[in-house]
Design a protein that fits this description.
The complex is a heterodimer of chains A (297) and B (256).
Chain A lengths: L2 H16 L1 H15 L13 H8 L1 H31 L1 H6 L3 H7 L6 H12 L4 H8 L19 H25 L2 H10 L4 H29 L3 H6 L7 H10 L5 H25 L12 H4 L2
Helix pairs in contact in A: 2-14, 3-14, 4-9, 4-11, 7-9, 9-11, 10-11, 11-14, 13-14
Chain B lengths: L1 H24 L1 E3 L9 E2 L2 H6 L5 H32 L4 H13 L2 H14 L6 H23 L2 H12 L4 H30 L2 H7 L6 H10 L3 H32 L1
Helix pairs in contact in B: 1-11, 3-6, 3-8, 4-6, 5-9, 6-8, 6-9, 7-8, 8-11, 10-11
Subcellular location (chain B): Cell inner membrane
InterPro entries (chain B): MetI-like, MetI-like_sf
Protein name (chain B): ABC transmembrane type-1 domain-containing protein
Chain lengths: 297, 256
């Protein structure tokens, strides 16, 4: 083996040790724990924990609730980001304008800070409640609606939108430039298309088609959110990461195998989505964003 | 005209969270229904500069962890990514890198907690850095996978053909070309590590306290003023980095 082969091999071993080994090792441990093979109170092989999780409505509610939060927040963010990009496209394309600088500011906020900010704005004793009270609309603090730790996840949605919109706006403005959409639009209009037709037949389809993989990844990232629902969510329904971790950290040791079964299901679910995104015929180069970590820390 | 007029409104919306958190960080009491805190104090900010200040120590520790993680990841992933990007099975290797990238770090940490306890690195500085490597290293590989393209390979091969050995090719040709992407990776990984909460909380088991953990602790203690102060400390470094990132790296990348 020459030095070059050794170099390639050692780098690939480092890669496998830092990527697949932790995920694989974690999955094996979680799976063995969930089927009762290892663990403090486990007495041998059993599928009862998996049956409990799969027949428990709280797991399915949690999955559905996570999906609802992800779809709603990503959809609203796309609409807002498209509005920002189309409204300020000239400023954003120039890349040195004040708008393009402003879009980067929210990227500096970790999820926990956004969650704290949302709580200080929307809680019963928050800023909005105080302003409404000063305006004389509110007679007492309890009359203010529940906008944090509420069933519909209002403040979770607000926080997610606050974090995703700037990222999508930056992504869309880059795509607008890369795909020379202005040029395409001008050609369409010189061939007789109206402004509305150019928008709905050229601009939006090109941007959304190019961004569809990133949008799909963001749905997965938001579904895995942890800190935001931990601070702003409620006990029931919970988002999937919060449900798994709370089951793991409860005093009831019998909940631990169920937590690991949920973790396994989550891992399988993410693996399948990623496989589909990566190897589907229409898949293009996936993009990476540090913002993702803001969600599911 | 309307576009220009709306820019200040947009600016206000974007900077409002910073303004509110800054205001609260100077607050002492905020009785309902007052819109602004009733009393202001410089004490919280002054306390940071005390030698034994807990927040100062936590900030320094967070900086240490983030600098350590970003340095190691930038170095390791730069070379790993080269061999992966030039591999015949590039897409399969990149798929493997995407798995930990897409995963929820907190769930990954939950499944790894046993191993960290077993090798006795749970609750240690090293343990937290190692755990953060698992989520940031794949990210680094993915960033560099765009850099190691056929053009860079062709330039390196040209240098070899013209008589440069592998060290000269790397030092005089590849490294100058990669300065921008190296800095980009370093900054981005620093941010990921700086923002990290769930994984650090589980692997650090409360012994390794970072700024994100402090924010959460202050919120649980219902001390919104210190939570706001810790939040301000969390926002400042990313703002400086993103400014440098946007001002220098993006501009450089456009000229490469």
């Amino acid at each position: 083996m020459n030095a070059n082969h050794f170099n390639i091999l050692s780098n690939k071993i480092v890669f496998l040790m830092l990527t697949i080994l932790p995920v694989g090792g974690g999955f094996v441990y979680a799976f063995l724990y969930s089927i009762g093979t290892i663990g403090i109170l486990n007495n041998g092989f059993t599928l009862s924990h998996w049956v409990n999780v799969l027949t428990d409505t709280s797991f399915w509610f949690s999955l559905g609730y996570s999906f609802y939060i992800a779809i709603v927040s990503v959809s609203i963010s796309i609409l807002l980001a498209l509005t920002i990009v189309l409204f300020w496209k000239k400023s954003l394309v120039s890349n040195n304008s004040i708008v393009s600088y402003l879009l980067y500011i929210p990227l500096c906020f970790p999820a926990i800070v956004v969650a704290l900010f949302s709580f200080q704005v929307w809680s019963k004793s928050g800023l909005i409640s105080r302003i409404v009270s000063h305006l004389g609309i509110l007679t007492e603090i309890t009359s203010f609606p529940d906008l944090t730790n509420d069933t519909y996840g209002f403040s979770i949605l607000y926080s997610c939108i606050l974090m995703i919109t700037p990222f999508f706006a930056i992504l869309f403005s880059n795509l607008y430039k890369q795909e020379q959409i202005d040029h395409l639009k001008n050609i369409a209009m010189s061939l007789g298309a109206t402004k509305t037709q150019a928008l709905f037949k050229i601009v939006l389809p090109v941007i959304l088609k190019k961004a569809k993989i990133t949008i799909s990844l963001f749905i997965v990232f938001v579904m895995s959110s942890y800190e935001i629902p931990l601070l702003l969510g409620r006990q029931n329904p919970q988002m999937i990461s919060v449900l798994a971790i709370q089951k793991l950290q409860r005093f009831n040791l019998n909940d631990i195998p169920q937590a690991y079964a949920i973790a396994c299901l989550y891992m399988i679910f993410i693996g399948l989505i990623l496989y589909f995104l990566f190897f589907s015929k229409s898949s293009t180069q996936l993009s990476v964003s540090p913002l993702k970590r803001n969600f599911d820390d | 005209m309307i576009r220009k007029a709306l820019i200040p409104v947009f600016m206000l919306m974007v900077t409002f969270p910073i303004a509110l958190l800054l205001l609260l960080s100077f607050g002492k009491s905020w009785v309902y229904p007052n819109i602004f805190p009733d009393q202001f104090t410089l004490q919280h900010w002054n306390d940071i500069y005390q030698i034994n200040s807990e927040l100062l120590m936590v900030t320094l520790k967070s900086i240490g962890i983030s600098l350590g993680v970003s340095s190691v990841v930038t170095l390791l992933s730069f070379f790993s990514s080269k061999h992966i990007s030039y591999s015949v099975y590039k897409s399969r290797w990149l798929f493997l890198a995407y798995i930990p990238y897409v995963f929820s770090p907190v769930i990954l940490a939950a499944t790894l907690q046993f191993y960290f306890t077993f090798v006795d690195v749970s609750g240690t500085f090293f343990g937290v850095i190692l755990a953060q490597l698992f989520i940031t290293y794949p990210f680094g590989v993915l960033i560099f996978s765009n850099f190691w393209n056929p053009r860079i390979k062709a330039i390196a091969e040209l240098s070899n053909t013209l008589g440069g050995n592998s060290w000269i090719t790397f030092y005089k040709v590849v490294l100058p070309l990669s300065k921008g992407v190296l800095l980009l990776c370093f900054f981005q990984v620093f941010l990921i590590s700086w923002f990290e909460y769930g994984l650090t909380a589980l692997i650090g088991v409360g012994k390794i306290k970072t700024l994100t953990l402090s924010v959460f602790q202050y919120i649980q203690e219902a001390n919104i003023f210190l939570a706001a102060l810790a939040s301000c400390l969390l926002i400042i470094p990313p703002m400086i980095l993103l400014y440098l990132n946007k001002r220098f790296i993006f501009t450089n990348q456009q000229t490469i």
